[in-house]
Design goal:
Distance between the termini: 29 Å
Low-confidence stretches: none
Mean pLDDT: 96
Strand order of the largest sheet: 1-2-3-4-5-6-7
Radius of gyration: 17 Å
Strand content: 5-15%
Order of helices and strands: HEHHEHEHEHHEHEEHH
Largest sheet: 7 strands, parallel
Number of helices: 10
Helix content: 25-40%
Number of strands: 7
Shape: globular
């Protein structure tokens, strides 16, 4: 699950969440922006540091925000270094396929663990024409498969697949040795991630199809998070209603 502050991070860690993602989604759910693009490295460092103080066991993955890594591998290294040294991140996540492979390799060779991200990449929302499912056509599906393999070869430790058809996510997961983490990618990924505010039903805008409100019929936030953990690990979530099909 995502978290952006100490209190929620501690609760998620205690409730059994294995990985906490300090997402640049904070630009939307915490700051009220329409996209993730305005978020800065300094803001990610601040929120990651808050999260890290509340975590004892979960892996902390932090998003590298827009324009903190696209300029050059050296620029990406400087940004990642700040996120790890000042923010206490353990893994950095960046978006993009084969064009980012050189950057992934550059970071990994210098001791920076990297999580890759394919499918719907929110930092490219304007290029993609909005928050749309990716990989429904044969050509784009094949591109995602190709990019996933290239990123693994470059040294990525895990891969987030967002808003892609469940059948494609299943194939990509079987193609790779590294774990896949799905968000709107069906039940066959190795793990799942949701934005915390979506799964608690507290984000004021409509939640995406692939999310589920675990606060419904839950007595507390802790109960809701534990229900989410159990549903993911049992394979009960996500269901077909939270998944996408090819065109």
């Amino acid at each position: 699950l995502t978290a952006y502050d100490n209190s929620f991070a501690s609760l998620l860690d205690t409730a059994g969440v294995d990985m906490i993602m300090v997402g640049d989604s904070l630009g939307m759910v915490m700051q009220g922006h329409d996209s993730t693009l305005p978020v800065s490295v300094a803001e990610m460092v601040y929120h990651c540091r808050c999260v890290a103080r509340g975590v004892q066991r979960a892996l902390i993955v932090v998003d590298m925000p827009f324009m903190s890594y696209q300029q050059s591998p050296a620029h990406a290294l400087a940004s990642a270094g700040r996120l790890m040294q000042k923010g206490s991140a353990q893994v950095v996540k960046l978006e993009g396929g084969e064009p980012m492979a050189e950057t992934v390799r550059f970071l990994v060779e210098r001791g920076i663990p990297v999580c890759a991200h394919l499918g719907l990449t929110p930092q490219s929302v304007h290029q993609l024409g909005g928050y749309r499912v990716q990989g429904r056509e044969a050509a784009t599906a094949e591109r995602i498969r190709h990019d996933a393999k290239v990123l693994q070869q470059a040294g990525a430790s895990l891969l987030v697949l967002e808003a892609v058809p469940s059948a494609l996510a299943k194939v990509v997961t079987s193609d790779l040795e590294i774990p896949t983490i799905g968000i709107g990618a069906g039940k066959d990924c190795d793990g799942q991630v949701l934005v915390l505010q979506d799964m608690l039903g507290i984000y004021p805008r409509p939640s995406p199809k692939f999310s589920r409100n675990f606060m419904e019929n839950a007595a507390s936030v802790d109960t809701a998070v534990r229900a989410y953990v159990a549903a993911v690990k049992s394979g009960e979530f996500p269901g077909p209603e939270h998944s996408f099909q090819p065109a």
